[in-house]
Amino acid sequence: MLLRSKMATTATKNDVKNISDKLDKISKSLVDNRTSLLQLTEEIKELRRSQQFLSEQYEDMKQRLHSKDEEVKVLQAETQDLKLHLRKLEAVTSQTHEEVNDLEQYGRRECLEMI
What is the DSSP annotation of 56-104? Predict the structure, then answer.
C-alpha cells in the first residue's frame, strides 16, 4: 500500500507539474494575445483617424469643386455676353467703315477739295 501511495503521490506531483506547465503556457499565450490585441486596437484607431482625415479632405475638395463649377458657370455666361457685345461692336465698326468709304467715294465724285 505504501508503494501505491508513493506512486500516487509521484503521479500526482507529475500531474500537478504538467498542469502547472500547461497553465504557464496558456498564461503566456494569453499575454501574447493581449499584446497583439492592444496593437491591433491601436492600428484600428489610427486607421479610423486616417479615414476621418480623408473623409474631411474629400468633403473639402467636393465643396471647392462645387464652388469652382459655379465660378465657371458665371464666367461662361459673362463670356457669352462679351461675345455678343463684341459681335455688335464689330457690326457697328463695319457699318461705320462702310459709311466712311461711301463718304470718301462721294467726296471724290464731286471732286471736292478740303482744305
Answer: HHHHHHHHHHHHHHHHHHHHHHHHHHHHHHHHHHHHHHHHHHHHHHHHH
Distance CA 86, CA 71 (A): 22
Q: Is the pTM for the entire model greater than 0.90?
A: no
Distance CA 114, CA 63 (A): 67
pLDDT 10s digits, 65-100? 999 999 999 999 999 999 999 999 999 999 999 988
- How many residues does this entry show for the chain? 115
DSSP designation for 42: H
The rounded distance, in Å, linking the Cα atoms of 74 and 67 is 11
